[in-house]
Amino acid sequence: MENTPQAPATQLADYGLQHFAIYVDDMEVAAARFQQAGGTLLSPPHALTGFEAGTRNQFVYGRSPWGTIIELISYPDGILYPQESEAYRWTPPA
Question: Cα separation of 62 and 60, whole Å?
Answer without folding.
Answer: 7
